[in-house]
Write a structure and sequence with these properties.
Layout: H1 2-8, H2 12-16, H3 21-37, H4 45-48, H5 53-57, H6 62-78, H7 86-97, H8 103-132, H9 138-155, H10 162-173, H11 178-195, H12 208-220, H13 236-248, H14 252-259, H15 267-270, H16 284-287, H17 293-307, H18 318-330, H19 334-351, H20 356-369, H21 375-389, H22 394-405, H23 410-425, H24 434-447, H25 453-470, H26 472-475, H27 484-496, H28 505-513, H29 520-527, H30 532-551, H31 559-575, H32 589-599, H33 602-606, H34 613-629, H35 637-645, H36 655-671, H37 676-689, H38 696-710, H39 712-725, H40 729-746, H41 753-764, H42 769-786, H43 799-812, H44 834-851, H45 863-869, H46 874-891, H47 901-908, H48 914-931, H49 939-949, H50 955-972, H51 975-978, H52 982-988, H53 992-1005, H54 1020-1027, H55 1032-1056, H56 1063-1079, H57 1087-1091, H58 1099-1102, H59 1104-1111, H60 1117-1120, H61 1122-1128, H62 1134-1142, H63 1151-1154, H64 1166-1175, H65 1189-1200, H66 1205-1211, H67 1216-1228, H68 1234-1239, H69 1241-1252, H70 1257-1276, H71 1283-1287, H72 1290-1296, H73 1302-1315, H74 1321-1331, H75 1337-1354, H76 1363-1372, H77 1379-1396, H78 1399-1404, H79 1409-1421, H80 1428-1436, ...
Helix pairs in contact: 3-6, 6-8, 7-8, 8-9, 9-11, 10-11, 11-12, 14-29, 17-19, 18-19, 18-20, 19-21, 20-21, 20-22, 21-23, 22-23, 22-24, 23-25, 24-25, 25-27, 28-30, 30-44, 30-50, 31-44, 32-35, 34-36, 35-36, 35-37, 36-38, 37-38, 37-39, 38-39, 38-40, 39-40, 39-41, 40-42, 41-42, 42-43, 45-46, 46-48, ...
Amino acid sequence: MGDDSEWMKLSVDQKCEHKLWKARLSGYEEALKIFQKIKDEKSPEWSKYLGLIKKFVTDSNAVVQLKGLEAALVYVENAHVAGKTTGEVVSGVVSKVFNQPKAKAKELGTEICLMYIEIEKGEAVQEELLKGLDSKNPKITVACIETLRKALSEFGSKIILLKPIIKVLPKLFESREKAIRDEAKLIAVEIYRWIRDALKAPLQNINSVQLKELEEEWLKLPTGAPKPTRFLRSQQELEAKLEQQQSAGGDAEGGGDDGDEVPQIDAYELLEAVEILSKLPKDFYDKIEAKKWQERKEALEAVEVLVKNPKLEAGDYSDLVKALKKVVGKDTNVMLVALAAKCLTGLAVGLRKKFGQYAGHVVPTILEKFKEKKPQVVQALQEAIDAIFLTTTLQSISEDILAVMDNKNPTIKQQTSLFIARSFRHCTSSTLPKSLLKPFCAALLKHINDSAPEVRDAAFEALGTALKVVGEKAVNPFLADVDKLKLDRIKECSEKVELVYGKKAGATADKRESKALPGKTVASGAAGDKDVKEAAAPKSGPLKKAPATKASGPPKKGKPAVSGAAGGSGSKNKKGPDVKEIVEPELSVEVCEEKASVVLPPTCLQLLDSSNWKERLACMEEFQKAVELMDRTEMPCQALVRMLAKKPGWKETNFQVMQMKLHIVALIAQKGNFSKTSAQVVLDGLVDKIGDVKCGNNAKEALTAIAEACLLPWTAEQVMSMAFSQKNPKNQSETLNWLSNAIKEFGFSGLNVKAFISNVKTALAATNPAVRTSAITLLGVMYLYVGPPLRMFFEDEKTALLSQIDAEFEKMQGQTPPAPTRGTSKNVGGGTDEGEDGDEPDEGGSDVVDLLPRVEISDKITLELISKIGDKNWKIRKEGLDEVSSIINEAKFIQPNIGELPTALKGRLNDSNKILVQQTLSILQQLAVAMGPNVKQHVKNLGIPIITVLGDSKNNVRAAALATVNAWAEQTGMKEWLEGEDLSEELKKENPFLRQELLGWLAEKLPALRSTPTDLILCVPHLYSCLEDRNGDVRKKAQDALPFFMMHLGYEKMAKATGKLKPTSKDQVLAMLEKAKANMPAKPAAPAKASSKPAGGAGPAKFQPVSAPVEDSMSSSVESKPDPKKTRGGGVSKAKSVQGKKMPSKSSLKEDDDKSGPIFIVVPNGKEQRMKDEKALKVLKWNFTTPRDEYIEQLKLQMSSCVARWLQDEMFHSDFQHHNKALAVMVDHLESEKEGVIGCLDLILKWLTLRFFDTNTSVLMKALEYLKLLFTLLSDEEYHLTENEASSFIPYLILKVGEPKDVIRKDVRAILNRMCLVYPASKMFPFLMEGTKSKNSKQRAECLEELGCLVESYGMNVCQPTPGKALKEMAIHIGDRDNTVRNAALNTIVTVYNVHGDQVFKLIGNLSEKDMSMLEERIKRSAKRPAAAPVKQVEERPQRTQNLNSNANMLRKGPAEDMSSRLNQARSLSGHSEATHTVPREFQLDLDEIENDNGTVRCEMPALVQHKLDDIFEPVLIPEPKIRAVSPHFDDMHSNTASTINFIISQVASGDINTSVQALTQIDEVLRQEDKSEAMSGHIDQFLIATFMQLRLIYNTHMADEKLDKDEIIKLYSCIIGNMISLFQMENLAREASTGVLKDLMHGLITLMLDSRIEDLEEGQQVFRSVNLLVVKVLEKSDQTNILSALLVLLQDSLLATAGSPKFSELVMKCLWRMVRLLPDTINSINLDRILLDIHIFMKVFPKEKLKQCKSEFPIRTLKTLLHTLCKLKGPKILDHLTMIDNKNESELEAHLCRMMKHSLDQMGSKSDKETEKGASRIDEKASKAKVNDFLAEIFKKIGSKENTKEGLAELYEYKKKYSDADIEPFLKNSSQFFQSYVERGLRVIEMEREGKGRIPSSTGISPQMEVSCVPTPTSTVSSVGNTNGEEVGPSVYLERLKILRQRCGLENTKQDDRPALTLLSKPSVPAVVSSTDMLHSKLSQIRESREQHHHLDLDSNQMHSAATTSSSSSSTAANIDDLKKRLERIKSSRK
């Protein structure tokens, strides 16, 4: 007992695992009690036992095990987690319970298995039980079979899969154990109960005795269909419902439900497929071609044996079919023909739908072989063709059958008709639509008049069958002309016909066809017997419809009207004749007179041919009265019109009589039963009078009346042929005009396009212009109905004519054909059956395509061409393909019979030559267009191979294949592609390219399908394997496609299909399915198509009975039940009916409750996540020309999480009125849901862009109204649009600015105006610039206007990328052909001129004379705009005073640019009228505003600085920016680093020095940390622009501001230069700087170096040194091409600027010399083509002669030096780099280079005056003393060369120091005195510098940023003497160097020469590159530069800065400065 007490203390779960059986027993008992108590199936308690349940059932102790089984059963029944244990528990039951002797244990084991099935784990249970069948223990096997039988009996064959059980049955029957055999017999009987005869085939091979026993048992079974007695958890409601029905004693619906299950299992499905291709005899193909018939017979017998297998494995049977077809068609031995036919039968039966692709090849051959008379051959052929028919559709082989119908051989005609009759028996009213019935009836009607009786009988049988299948209403219109006897015969045949699907063909067939459609039976059940047919017909309507709609390809625009109204009416008229049309024989004149005399007054008849016109007129009046009073039945129409035609008839000369006569004809046609015979009498006369001026209108009225009586198609054909058989052009043109109107009135249905086209071509060739014009008008009307294919018939017309036709077509583009007003009235009373009407549009639609004349090209597809295409030589194959292409091109539209071409082209699709594959694909695209919808019969043999090409490794081949597949699908619809296993076989292939392309294609196409493709389920297993593919793209595509598969198949089916996956895979896939279920789109509803029809077509209600069941696979029968009732009322409005359709899929919540909550749900970080997804390309970027379905679906998906469901339904509704409702709701909620609106703003804006593409104006107006309110709200909320929101919205808004309606344009402009408050104007600018490139002239004009407004409001800084580029693009529009655009462009540029003055001309560049004169004229006319206006406008807005340094709201607001920038702009504008600046400094300058603000400052305050030279040489310390931790922005906003950097950079250019210093410090911190410096990448240009703008601001504003502490300026300079040095030390960042920016930077730095005011500051020298060092860095580290290009352009600009300082140009040239020295090392990284282009432009602006006229010779020498170095380095190859120069021959550059190449590069003397020598070789450091002379000669050579002089002097100094006794006298002796003193002075300077080292203290005031970059450079490459290492140099050094420089320039050292007078800036030539800040030059800088000209700042050839001021100034300078001082005083006093 002690032991007992131990375990009794344990917890229940521990007891269950205890080793003592008692403990376990106790544990199981307690567990059972616990399980029974737990009420919540999701209680956590269940999870504790999850791992123990297997132990419960496998316990080793039998007693304990029983208790364990009981507990396990309760657990499985109640625990929600029980499903996870299925595999292990059932496996335990099979192995450890079923072998127990106790019956109770087995019983419990079976119960557990059944319970698992009930909780949806049937497949796993079945799998384990089937494994148990292989057990060696017979007890286990018996128990497993018994359990399976019980499961089948209770749950039914839907839950228990029969196929795997049937597969093992034969094996069980062979067992040695009797118990197993008996149990097998019982399960076989149970299976038979569910599937009936389908079981017989699989069990044919078991023991005959057993089979006999079985059959006896089967006979005893009740005949009623079995019903499941137990249901899955998900079906519990159904169970309850069933019980209710049983208690009520009725199960009508249940019966309907069960009826489904009987045909569900097909015996064929239960069979194993046999692979026979490999089993064919190896010599089969040789034998089949053998000459001896015996050998051929052997080959065929071998095949016959193989094809007897009832199910064959799919494969490529094309060769085998081809061989058999050849035997059937060409073999002379009839026995073999019969044998081959049997083989084909076997193949068709064994392959079923997979044989469909070969059907088209074989059918024509078999039909033609029916000429054989032998019964056994005929029978074999009949069996073959019947078997083949079942593998395909009547539609796809209809062309082949109809082609054979015209054969002369009566046997062929007879057998074809019989085959048609047999085929019709398999059809239903839906699979035999009118479009198909029509051609068959026409052909069969010919046969019923055939001379051979057997042909007639067969035709009667076929027509009778058709009548039985589709009913009299459908067939009667085609039997209008059949006499009564024959009609009776047809009806008699009809009664005898037994249809395959029984009496109610429509309903039953439908049931068979669409068994996969969920909810189908409900529809038919609910509708009741009366409606079965009606419910069924529309159901298959949509099935057929999808392909039909696509089939017609291009003429889609006209389609809805044609099919709905026009087509409908036309076909109703066609029905009319069976009631209305009178076929009357032609009557003789005598009979007519007799009949007429009865109804007309006698005087009337006598006076008809009177010679007096008045009598004839009186006679006509009487005639008219008589006709008006006649009754329709009594009116003898033919007699009356013959009387009218009696002499003088239509030759009547008096117009009044003639008018009356024509009017009477119209009356007779309207009032009487007017036949075609009567029409024939009058038509000729009417056509003759149609061109008559006075009678023409009456003639047209009469024709219209006849057309109404006899149908337009017939009348039009008669009238056209008559008009064109005569030569009167007036008649011809009026006939064409009449026909144009008639088509609009009657619709297009039934018209013969072919006949018209030939007549129209005749008319187009007419000499009379009126005829041509009328013909073109008629073509325009036809285009409305036929669409683009019409043009193909006129492509060979003359260009002028074709352009007229195109213009006419363009007018019609977008219009829908008018609803027919005539031709419908007569037969309205005849009301048609709803179901019938459903098919009507189908006919109308396909009619238009059928009307196009198609050419037969099969005769051109010769054997020779086929062999060419298959040739071994690719060139010959290409020739063959070219021929095919030209054949198709010539034919335009072709018939589907193309002989052997498909096989040949299929071979080329896997050609090794990819070019041929692409060519084949393009031919297949042509083929699809040319063949139209008929191409669908080639989908299996040609379409599927195209899909295989999607697996090609080459991108372009895949793209071509995809385009081809799309072209085919457009013609065929998707049904053909998805039928059969072909598509799933392709998806099965493990090719990642194929999988991703195919899945992408399916994801695109499936959403548009309205009907569920039955074979789509076959693709699902492969879709699941794609979800786990190794390739990420495949997985992504599979996930994208998942919701669309689910949309058609439903979640249940998809989840069920996961059963065969591995457990791990299954869980993953199920999780994905759950996710996809949430995103599953609604299925497109059938009424969508109906609603697009014009009102009057009874469309919307018709298709509805099925729409709900089809749409929502989840909807239960209860929910969908009311639907058909709704639609029966017919009068339901469109909107209502659509809602009615949607109801079942929604939950039963009341709508009011639904709409109560917020409409926008705030999702935390939702917007950021969407932006990230778009950036990472996880979703499509919102960028399109017109929105495609995938964009709309994506938006819908994104909205689903944050927009109320009901609102989303309204937003994405197909009806525009719902969009209006949605917008109204959004307006109402705008104020109350600000947070939500801002959270979903990106989605709202995207949805609004979709509305911009709607054609409905009311929606557009409402959308724009909402936008105005929205942007007002956003600006009040101080929200800042993100880049993502802006780029996905603004471009589409700008599209609308070109709308034709003024009111819309006005609204759009208002919105654009408001947008500038929430999005920077400078960023709006590029979008508007893009808008100016539109083809829409209104849009161009409006965008230009808006650009003008932006410039006016915000100044030139909005111009992006640079004002120059922007203005150039605007100026292009001055020459626009549209007047409004020209005016807008001129006004915009005038606006810029008013803001900016004459600088505009420089920025615009060269304009044509005409444009320039227009611009100048406009500028003269326009007075300057008052500057006060903008200020007022700005001040009206609330001023914001938030601190710009605080970034707290940064993410929301972005750079706070908008308000401050406008205020500053207002200041700058007011500056023009000398207004004083009262705006406080808090509104500091922003990046976009600096330049304009400067403009005004410069105008008012000349920058005159008092010189303070005292403490210039004292060492100074630049204040060091405090080093602090990286600003929190970088951490807080790492998600938006780019915008943070943008913001900080914008602050660099701030007008407030502290703000700027702070920003620079932050950037410096980034640049110093290697890991963070990368963040600056992409912002370099932006940063440099901000920096040089700040430099310019300091130069123009701060330096002139006396109140400012100059230490502040030095501090700012220190930060700027330090930052730049840090930046230019990083080569990867430095290289990002672009040419334009580098040019401006260099301009800024050189200007700074020349700023004499800096010298006056204490630390000025230090600034100069730092700048010098920076320039060196810029030259060395930037992209060498960019910097060289920038310097060349800068030089060009500086030489062009007449007021510029020559010192500036000189410094630019020195930079260029520096670059030349670097060339040997950098030549390979330079883009020489670009540099040579720049030099070429330079030489164009400055030809040699002009350069020589320059005061300085430096420019020409610089250019020559540069070119010389390039030539030397590249040699003759330099001439290959002139590619970018357009006209090389005119270029001086090429000639110059050629001259240089001719000279030897070695002519370099050592004379001092030789200045163009370069690149002398370096010193050999190890020269021995023996070579002293050579060594010194080398040094002097360097000193003598201009660029190496400093290096030479340094080497000479070193040499003298080393060898103090060396004699250099001999080298100096021969040189000039100047050269000698130059060398001596140079050596002295070097000596002083070397000695001066070390004297300078280390704290020279360089900020830490600079110290980093001050690395001493080796002496040999010293770039600037005296400052490279940061030391300070005494003034004497600079004075000494100044003397040297002055001497070298030939100047005296005592006094300065006077500078030329200052000339103001004239209009300069255009520079090649316009800088982004060129507009900042103004008079102020000119004044300053004129003063700087008087300072000689010395920079020797290697030095980049100057330190010393000149020792004296000329008197003129002093006077000049005094004068300026006085002016400054005057200005200051005026400002006070």
